[in-house]
């Protein structure tokens, strides 16, 4: 796939260092600890699922990682650099990307225009007022990303005319703009049909190996198929960690999260 060569060439060899290190991360809202003493390490290129019931602290954790919230205490290191107090845009510059539960797209523009603007937004020429010319490298890059998320046939379609599942696919393309090294996916399968979920799994498993991701997902079938490691959260704290098979077969997880009797 063209995206692999385009992005991997800029990054060089895949690092074996940690992509993300959380040490004692806590976020208080008044007297309420939304997350408490979270310590976790995600390797470069690792695919991690973060699971838990509603209110477990998953989205708050994402907000602290991305800089939407600053933690009350603890440290966050991104590719070896302490980014605990960094604003969100500085974390983006270091290779962090995120999708949200609610689609944030430009409905009046085409798929191609949305992806082009995302590529332009993280490029050095993002403030230029000139229209793209024939052979513009960013136009070519946008086409590669559209292909990577299986939307080539819809590239000239207005985003407002896409199905909900296609809009979720487009969000992944936007997250791939630039040179991401770690992407946070916040419930990308929510509201998707079985066919659309299968398409999502194919897209996520087909991402270049040097791009790691963390996925929050309530659909266990999706989460356990795309992840190589799983972190379970409960009441704002890490409850269990392990492989998908270990988590799926853990009696405590089945009782707490799956309701018991999960086969």
UniProtKB/TrEMBL annotation:
Cellular component terms, GO, for this chain's entry?
Answer: plasma membrane
Q: Which one GO biological process term can you cite for this protein?
A: D-alanine transmembrane transport
KW ATP-binding (keyword) present = yes
Cross-referenced SMART domains: AAA (SM00382)
| Listed InterPro entries | AAA+_ATPase, ABC_AA/LPS_Transport, ABC_transporter-like_ATP-bd, BCA_ABC_TP_C, P-loop_NTPase
Q: Does the keyword Zinc apply?
A: no
One Pfam match, given by its short name, reads BCA_ABC_TP_C
In this chain the ABC transporter domain maps to 20-260
What GO molecular function annotations does the UniProt record carry, in alphabetical order? ATP binding; ATP hydrolysis activity; L-isoleucine transmembrane transporter activity; L-phenylalanine transmembrane transporter activity; L-valine transmembrane transporter activity
> Which UniProt keywords are present, listed alphabetically?
ATP-binding, Nucleotide-binding, Transport
Q: Which domain of life is it from?
A: Bacteria
Question: By what name is this protein known?
Answer: Amino acid/amide ABC transporter ATP-binding protein 1 (HAAT family)
What is the protein's species of origin? Tepidamorphus gemmatus
């Amino acid at each position: 796939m063209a995206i692999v060569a385009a992005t991997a060439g800029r990054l060089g060899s895949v690092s074996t260092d940690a992509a993300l290190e959380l040490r004692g991360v806590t976020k208080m809202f008044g007297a309420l600890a939304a997350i408490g003493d979270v310590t976790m390490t995600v390797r470069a290129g690792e695919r991690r699922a973060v699971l838990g019931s509603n209110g477990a602290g998953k989205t708050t954790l994402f907000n602290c990682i991305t800089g939407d919230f600053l933690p009350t205490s603890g440290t966050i290191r991104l590719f070896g650099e302490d980014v605990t107090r960094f604003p969100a845009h500085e974390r983006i510059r270091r290779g962090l990307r995120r999708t949200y539960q609610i689609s944030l797209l430009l409905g009046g523009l085409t798929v191609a225009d949305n992806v082009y603007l995302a590529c332009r937004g993280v490029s050095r020429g993002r403030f230029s007022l000139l229209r793209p010319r024939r052979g513009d490298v960013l136009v070519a890059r946008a086409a590669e990303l559209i292909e990577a998320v299986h939307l080539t046939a819809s590239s000239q379609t207005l985003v407002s005319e896409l199905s909900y599942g296609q809009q979720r696919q487009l969000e992944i393309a936007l997250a791939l703009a630039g040179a991401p090294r770690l992407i946070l996916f916040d419930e990308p399968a929510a509201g998707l049909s079985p066919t659309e979920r299968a398409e999502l799994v194919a897209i996520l498993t087909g991402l270049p190996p040097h791009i790691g991701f963390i996925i929050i997902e309530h659909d266990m079938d999706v989460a356990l198929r795309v992840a190589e490691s799983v972190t379970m959260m409960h009441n704002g704290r890490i409850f269990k960690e392990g492989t998908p098979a270990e988590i799926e077969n853990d009696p405590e997880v089945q009782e707490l999260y799956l309701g018991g009797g999960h086969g």
